[in-house]
Design goal:
The structure holds two protein chains of two kinds.
Chain A: H1 19-23, E1 39-45, E2 51-57, H2 59-62, E3 67-71, E4 81-82, E5 94-95, E6 102-103, E7 109-115, H3 118-125, E8 129-134, H4 141-146, E9 159-167, H5 170-175, E10 179-187, E11 199-205, E12 210-215, H6 220-230, E13 238-241, H7 257-269, E14 273-276, H8 279-285, E15 292-300, E16 306-318, H9 329-337, E17 346-355, H10 369-387, H11 391-398, E18 407-408, E19 414-415, H12 420-431, H13 433-445, E20 449-461, E21 480-486, E22 492-496, H14 505-517, E23 524-527, H15 545-572, E24 579-582, E25 585-588, E26 594-596, H16 597-606, H17 613-616, E27 622-627, E28 633-645, E29 652-662, H18 669-688, E30 719-723, H19 741-757, E31 767-768, H20 772-786
Helix pairs in contact in A: 9-10, 10-19, 12-13, 14-15, 15-16, 18-19
Chain B: E1 5-11, E2 14-20, H1 26-33, E3 52-55, E4 58-61, E5 74-76, H2 89-96, H3 106-119, H4 125-131, H5 143-168
Parallel strand pairs in B: 1-5
Antiparallel strand pairs in B: 1-2, 3-4, 3-5
Classes of the chains: A alpha+beta, B alpha+beta.
Amino acid sequence: MQDDARPKFIGSRVQRLEDPRLLTGAGGFVDDIQLAHTLHVALVRSDHAHARILSVDVDAAGALPGVIGIYTADDFSASPLHATSRMKGYQSTGITALAEGKVRFVGEAIAAVVAESRYIAEDAAGLITVGYAPLPDLVDSRIAAASDVLLHEHHESNILVSRKFARGDVAEAFANAAIRVKDSFRFHRKTPLAIENRSYLADFNKGKQALTLYSSTQVPGVIRDALAEVLAMPGHSVRVVAPDVGGGFGGKASLYPEEILVSLLSRKLGQPVKWTSDRLEDLLTTSQAFDEAIDAELAVDKDGHLLGLKAEILGDVGAYSIYPWTAALEPMQVAGFLPGPYQLANYQAEVVAVTTNKTPAGPYRGVGRPAAAFVLERLIDMAAQRLDLDPVEMRRRNLVQPGQFPYRTGSGIVWDQSGFIECLELACKGVNYPALQAERSVARQAGRWFGVGVASYAELTGIGSRMSAAPGMPINTGTETATVEVDASGAVRATFGVASHGQGLETTLAQIVADELSVPVDSVQVIHGDSAAVTHSTGTYASRSAVLAGGAAHLSGQAVRDKVLEAAAFMLEADTDDLDIEDGIISERGTNKTLSLAEVGRAVYSEMGRFPLEMRAELDLRATKFYDPEFGTTTSATHIAAVEIDPETFIVTVKRFLVAEDCGRLINPMIVDGQVHGGIVQGIGAALYEEVVHDQNGQALSASLVDYVAPSAAETPKLEVLHLDTAALGTLGGYRGMGEGGTIGAPAAIANAITDALSHLNINISELPATPERIYRLVTQAIEGDT
Amino acid sequence: MIRKRPIILTVNGSTYARDIEPRRLLTDFLREDLGLTGIHVGCEHGVCGACTVLLDGTSARACLCLAVQADGREVTTVEGMGEIGALSLLQEKFRKHHALQCGFCTPGMLATAHEILSDAAPLTDAEIREALSGNLCRCTGYEHIVRAVSEALSERLGSTAAGSAPNAG
């Protein structure tokens, strides 16, 4: 918007423009799309975690009426796609549509049945028998790391990537420490669990030799580029469309074998081919995350100042190095963010990413930072307890102070100005910390197991091109594009490369464009999630869309405003400086001369000879701009949780949860709240309930929603969110990304609260989720240890 | 070939007569045969609640229901609750309070909420949470959904009370 104009929509609780269709059942998710003559796929999946495939007997299945064909890897000649990395010593794995020769996790697809209906396809899949020669199942990451049995025969070991780094003088820090605290932490595997299962519909047009893939993906641009490579087709002939997508949380941010499969099949068969995952397949094959064992030690001086941190991080990345993020993504992120938002210059870490016979790991909301925050925030509380300091005071003494930005952390990450201390103080005020402590005292006097936990964290969001969203990965995650155009009817369209899957980008990006052009917000149509709509993009992940696409929306909106004013000035015989726009009406100040946007649009495009020849060469009301924030920005928050544990059932109830956060300037406070709420509850799930469990043979024991427990409304507390609402300095518009933070802070705050509730038993929570069974064991051990 | 059976049922006020396989799920019948894709399928084992519809006015998991079981009955899906430009009270409140993000669980959530409003009993937030606990939402953290249902319920009860007052008098 112009400097002199107050934003009308940015900062307002604008009701979402996507809601009417979603509320009336008129949305269009991939599985809702019904193309004529569509064929349906059912997959035969491995029930072994590690085995050679000896035979696939398809005779009975192939004889079933309605079966079009049955395919195995031998039927396709496409070469495997590799997620490459510039990281030294990194070993990639090949990704193919179907397993070639061997299987490496339970659920890996071996054969595809194509039939006239999904019912027939599943009937036929049930008639296929696979012969296996079992191989040793490498399920434990420590065993896999040392094993001579290799998941991928061409590798040197099962360690896909490892790295050591150190800054400062860690040895001296530990030598000078008044106290040291350490523990072995374990964060167990999660699955993102979008309520919409993955779904892909490929439609190959024989006449045009062009493919359209409708995909429930967060990253249509990444998938387009990957498919063009795998299918050996020019990019212009591969279009990937992400229509309405039912949640992603990172689980839909990678390339999946089934996307390649339906594309190959549609090209082969010349008909649309659809595959939609069921929940069992989702729990077996959608990328999982947060599977880390972390040994860490913290050195602290007598006044509670953090001196040094040492960590060994073992990441279980599953059977394949996921495309495009690679196996480095999660474990490296743990190492990078472990020093947290604190003054902590001396840091050393060793990271090892191990391939195992489990579902491939990939991005999940928070990526590495939930585990990092869990470990550091626990260590800080352990140190505070030793020094008899309040956890809030401990953090107050160590958070990077307002005058210290930009601050380079022990891992080399640079925090720009962000409200670290301000969030801590706001959270304490919001929750009335002294009153909460008093409530705890009263509860404890009554014999109740009541605890309060605090966690502070910072994250990089809206990352520009100076660093990759995943280390060493050769994909440009730092740039976004926006095209804004006014057509002959005066309607405004804004086209983006990002893809919304619940974030409300059709609304927030329209708010920005509407303010730039001074038009009503509901007059702006936002196009997103279509690789053909932009020259290049990647998609939505890593809390980037509001910052990067929002910045591009400002730039292209401003450029179109200038073009509108230039055309209008000619039409009104006025100076552009004398023109205003409000609600889509252009007026000349001090006169009663006005033009509507529709009149300008009609004149520019439809009235021949309306403008002189010299103006017409560039006379469209359209602009494409790119935005690259270069470094990105720092989002920060403090979470405070109060929990109570039932001493008989060991069930943890979250009594109170409050977040104070700095996500910069809010585009739409209602949407920001919603993002934080959703993130918190995923964090509560990670802390208390959710765990992907494999047995020693790599069989998934959490293969239904009865066994993989996500929080429902009944387990979820009322959520309180406070915002600093101060513009970030380093980004256009002043926005910071805020899609992931809720999930980063919540596990740490809850782990601290549970530990606090169990302080009378001297129990440290070092393993999440803290299920009733785990708490029961800890309590039993503590009581038996005392006697 | 599996022998098909005739069924006649009412969906959102319209009567449909079809011959279908006995094994066909109600979800597939509604989505694929009738084109009512507002109903979504999230788990196919009755836990997530995304497929919830009203069967003779009572919430039911369409993924655990065969279409033949709906023979002679009345089904209401999200398409029958309101439309763009004429949203129902619940749909309005969901929009006002930002009670949906990706919108995938929303049709099922609305069906359950519809039943809560139909029961017309005053509920605390904790009771609303319990009543909604059969519908998983992964986006919203439920906070805004509870606010939307609570406000819709209050208004419904208020209008019922106001409407019944003259009769009572």
